[in-house]
Each structure stands twice: as C-alpha cells, then as structure tokens.
Amino acid sequence: MTDFIEEFLKNYGPEVSEQLSSTLGIDQDTALQMIPAVAPMILGGLKRQMEQHGGRDKRARADRVNHILNKYGSASVLDHIDGEFHSRAQERSPDPRLGGLLGESGVQAADMMSKQFNLDKGTAMRIIVMLAPIILGALTNKRDRGGVGSRGIAALIDQDGDDSILDDVAGFLLQGLSGSDSQRSGLLGDLLSGVMQPRCRKCGRPVDSNMKFCPGCGSRL
Q: Pick from 196, 23, 203: which is nearest to 123 by CA?
C-alpha cells in the first residue's frame, strides 16, 4: 500500500468509514475496505492524466494535477465529511467514471465491488462518487497546508500512483480485496484492526471488548 493511502487511513479512515456506513446503511468494516479499493484507482487516474497531458515535462505534469485538484478537490470537505456524503448520496445518477478520471474502469470497479462485497450496483457506484472528493480533498490539503506544493503532489502521485490498475481493475480488486487471508495481512491489516477497535459511544476512547465500563468517562459499555 502506498504512503499516501496509509496516511489517509490513519487520519481519516475512522470518520470516513463511520460516515459512509451511516449514510449508505452498510457495515462499517465493509465501508473501511472501500478506501484501499478506491484510493489506488484515484491515484492511478491522476497519474494517467499527468502522462496524457504533461508527458515528461514536470511543470506540465504538476499543472495538470493542479487543474484537477483546483476544480474537484477542496480541502474544506475534510471538515464536513458527513455533509459531503449526504449530498453525494442523493445524486440520482452517480457516475463512477468520475468524468475522464477513471473512465470505464470506474464502471468495472463498481461491478466488481458490488459482487465482492454483496452490494447493490447503485451503492457501489455511490461509494466511488462519495470517496473521490474526500481523497482529492486530502491531496489538496497536503498540497496547500502540508508544505508539499504543486510539484510535491505531482511527485507523490508519480511515486504512489499506478495507472496500470485502470487497465486491469478486476485483477487489482481480486488480488487485493478478495476477502482472502492476505487482505488483512501486513500494514493494511494493522490499520484496519486499529480503526475497527471498539470505542466508547460517549467519549470515543478505544476500549477492550471485555470491558464493562469506559476507563475514560466511566460510562457503561
């Protein structure tokens, strides 16, 4: 898994999965697994845009990413993820193609996610549409507030993005998110386990499943 996706899961995984679960009525563990399914495709789509519109010119590549982030990636969405999800969930015709960013690969991904996670097709399409602005918003936030800058984000996408997965969406999803033991191995497994650790409903503190009272606020679990 790429550094950016690891960082995204640590910083936003709990809230994103909770809000996605609440908005769409799906299991939170399933919602969490959608992040490492969708995020690599977003990065791959951005890298392909850089290749197609910037070639080997570093400035042109950075300009292309800037254009996309300035148009579709607002860091402000990170402050109201619940509102963004609610708004996107109301769209009557969600487009998993995300315009030209994913193209038909987005449609293929929705099909695969629907089958693998037992979701209806509409829900799978909405998940892609709902996660995209949050992921783009996190990239914009890293560019503007994280001291990375335009060329830094372009370099990050060069390093972390793999546009070849757009040509083999089925292979990517089957290999990485098939529900096999490998799905929860390594760092991804550690991150998912940490995010899904039980928490006190009142104060949000992580607790053990065998505890009867929260050690933080004393409320009954």
A: 23
Q: How many CB atoms lie within 10 A of CB 77?
A: 21
For residues 132 and 35, the answer to whether their CB atoms sit within 8 Å is: no
Q: Give the Cβ contact number of residue 185 at 10 Å.
A: 10
The CA distance from 126 to 118, in Å, is: 14
Four-residue CA torsion sign, 121, 122, 123, 125: positive
Q: Contact at 8 Å (CB) between 68 and 157? A: no
Residues 138, 145 contacting (CB under 8 angstroms)? no
What does the alpha-carbon distance between residue 173 and residue 33 come to, in Å, rounded to a whole number? 11
CA 193 from chain center: how many Å? 17
pTM greater than 0.90 (yes/no): no
Dist. CA 33–CA 53, nearest whole Å = 31
With 0-12 / 13-18 / 19 or more C-beta atoms within 10 angstroms meaning exposed / middle / buried, residue 220 is exposed
Sketch the domain layout of the chain as residue ranges. 3-184
Task: Kindly report, residue by residue over 96-111, the tens digit of the pLDDT.
Answer: 999 889 999 999 999 9
